[in-house]
Amino acid sequence: MTKIKKISTGSPWEDIVGYSRAIKIGNTIEVSGTTAPGANEYEQTIAIIESVKKVLNELNADLNHVIRTRIYCTDISKWEEIGKAHGEYFGKIKPVTAMVEVSKLIDPNILVEIEFSAIVSQ
Fold first, then answer.
1. 4-119: which CATH topology?
2. Who has the most CB within 10 Å: 6, 17, 77, 89?
3. What tens digit of pLDDT does each residue of 43-97 get?
């Protein structure tokens, strides 16, 4: 039987919406769309990646295990700021990625949301 480990941050939204921050099934880790406070897209992207680093560490993984990111933003014209922050962490790792503009995220102050997939040794 494949072992499943779920990570919760204790956010009330996890119970209301019915989701986990991250799930590890076998050697695969999926991290839910993650947001973070910040004054602009660059700051939010940095804060998101720092937050996810902690979640990955709880699952005995790190950013080097990330194979995919999915970036959602409310203003694609800010792609360079988002890309710069992403590149500061993933410039050598180079996971596959996508960056798409969405009309809005759950809160008007949230400008960026990122999902992560990782593969680790069992």
1. 60s Ribosomal Protein L30; Chain: A; (3.30.1330)
2. 89
3. 999 999 999 999 999 999 999 999 999 999 999 999 999 999 999 999 999 999 9
